[in-house]
Structure formats: C-alpha cells, structure tokens
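Researcher: Hi, I'm a grad student and pretty new to this. My advisor asked me to get structures for two proteins we've been looking at. I'm not sure of the right format, so I'll just paste the first sequence and hope you can take it from there.
Model: That works fine. Here's the first sequence with its structure tokens right after it:
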Amino acid sequence: MTIRMIALAATFVSAGAIGALAQQNQPQQQMQHPAGGQMAMSADSLPEECRTAVQASGQMQNMQGMDMSGMMQGMQGMMANMNEAQKGYMETMMKMHGPMMAAHMIKDSDVAFICGMIPHHQGAIDMARVVLKTGDNAEAKKMAEKVIKAQEQEIAEMKDWLKKNAKKEGSQ
C-alpha cells in the first residue's frame, strides 16, 4: 500500500468523522467498518469533562447533514486488499479520529488540546498493540511496549489535569 492510499484513507476517515459526529442527539453512532465490525464515531470515549465541553460548545450542529456513505463504500474496496496489520492500523485511525474531531470543537483551547490528545495517545497505544500482534521484529515490539507504557501514563496525567482544570458546566 502506498503512502498516497493511506493519506487518502485518512482524509476519508477525517471527513467521515465530522459527519458522523454531527449526529449529536444520538449518544453514539455506530457504522459498519469496512474491515468488518463496528466503529464508534462519537465523543463517548472521551472523559466526562471533554464530553461536557463538546456539548457546551454548540458547534456540532454546524456539521449536520454530511453524508459519508459513499466514502465508506470507497474504503471497503481499498481495505479488501489490506493485510491484518494494515486493517488494524486503519481501524485504529477510524476509532481515533471521531473523538479527536469532537474534542477540537471545544472552545477552550487548553481543554480542546488535552481532550484531543487523549484519543491521539490511545491511538498510539492501539497501533502499538497491532504491531505486538502482527509484527516480527523484536526491537519494534520492544518500542511498542515502551509506547504503551508511556502513553498510558500520559493519558492518566491528562485525565487528572481535566479533573482539576476543565469547567464542569463545559469549557467556553
């Protein structure tokens, strides 16, 4: 698979995440993942402080009406030729982008950054788990284990920061 195909897929996923997130009246929108299974496209995986701030931003309704069914059909064909690792990485990106996009709708820049970094770091953990499952190189697997440990620690620090710094009624 070429870098161009990965970039194209990432673009589809990002654009699709915006459309799926626009359905804020539904607690969590489920979509059929091209590789099989369901993918969550909502802010539900974010900490409570982030979900509250996303809702308070009032920006999600500006993105309603976006249709991503065509994009998803296009990705199905692309993913049909991917191996297990490639599908795992793509699945990780799809899982990560929805919550990141939701977090970046938060008006408070600091809270938006922290809330966006949590799914980003979780994405790194999920990618590391893919290489642990599918990789062959011991050094790459050792790096993946280090990534998991470091990113889990940073996520815990970010959640603690949110508890201390994010307004309960939603960041403005």
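Researcher: Oh nice, that was easy. Here's the second one.
Model: And its structure:
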Amino acid sequence: MQFKRILLKLSGESLMGGKQYGIDETHLDAYAQQIKEVAQMGLQIGIVIGGGNIFRGLSGTSRGFDRVKGDQMGMLATVINSLALSSALTALEQANRVFTAIRMEPVGELYSKWKAIEAMERGEVAIIAGGTGNPFFTTDTASALRGVEIEADAMFKGTRVDGVYTADPEKDPTATKFRSISFDEVYERGLRVMDLTATTLCKENNLPVVVFDMDSQGNLKKVIDGEDIGTLIHL
C-alpha cells in the first residue's frame, strides 16, 4: 500500500523512556529522527500525542478530580508533549507546525482541517494537540478523528508493543501476534488496541490502522515501506 499522507499516533507514556514521569529527551530525539526520516521521503505527516506521561484525566478522576477538569488537564499535557516534539524536530531542521484543538495562541495555531492540510502540503509536519478539545474523549479517538478529517491514507499507532496480540504479551507469554485483523474481530475479541469510539470511527470511515513498535529505531520507515513488522487493522 502506497501512502501519501498518514496520521501518526504516539503514546505519552512512550516519551518517558526509562523515566517514571515526564519526557526522556533521548527518547524524544529518537522519535524526531524517525519522523524526519519519513518526512524527507515526501510523506505528509499529521501527529497526535497522548499525555499519559504527565497527566491522565481518568486516573485523576479516581483521585478526586472532576472528570471534565481532569480531562482538560490531560489535554494540556498533550500540548506540552506536542511542543517538546516540535522543538526536537526544529532542532533537526524539520519544518513543523503545532495546532491546538482549543484556542491558545501563541502556544499553537487553532486547528482546522484546511490549515493542517496546507501545512502538510508545504512539507511541514502537522502536530495536532489538545485531543478533540472535549472531555470524555481519549487521544486514540482524537487520532481517529484527525486521521479522518485530514484524509489520511492510514493511521499508524506507534506503541511499545510490535503489534496486536491475542492477549497482553507483557503479561501472557502464550499470546500470539496477528499480522492483520478486522475491526469487527478486534471488537468481538475485546482486544484493547484502542477504545471503542476510536475503533468505530476508523471502521465507519474505512481508515486502516497499523500498530507497530515505534521504540525500535528505524521502524517507522520500515512500516511505511511495507515491511511486515506490525499489525494491520482493516475492514
């Protein structure tokens, strides 16, 4: 499958690297290098990053935070991560632009589909922060929504695991990996790849999802080139 434009979803937790909290600069730079590598191939890239390395709304709710306030804090955490990635890309001389779902100039430009597409067509990496801008939605759902909006050919979900398994491979040594799987089977098996809202959004808009290990240097280019190193989720 040839890709002209992709939506890359990165987890906030992955940015911690070996730390317990926050951002591991070495890990961040490695991500930026991989992104620049594929951007230099002419690929148009939109990026959504989670905020779980800084604050997660749901876990905040369990500690007494109001859910709406907690989710808003989580949205701001994604903005911090997005600015960090933007800085790392700029240091590598890779053009990029930060968009935010909630108005907060001059931190970032207010997101719109057309401005993001214009930026990508100019060769800039579009980093889309702030989730959907609404509480009760995860960054997986934000990724699916932005992927559909920017008319991406596929969504690439970069994780610490190299694909989708029958069970959590970190907990179950007998878990086996899928090379490809349908959205319906993900739902029927109860696999926790993304939340149901994100899965449904991708299915209804025929946005294929590739789950792969982003932590191994060079894997983003490999998976873009079609190497069989992840799991394809499709209709």
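Researcher: Is there anything I should tell my advisor about the second?
Model: You could mention this: Residues 5-234 form a domain with the Carbamate kinase fold (CATH 3.40.1160.10).
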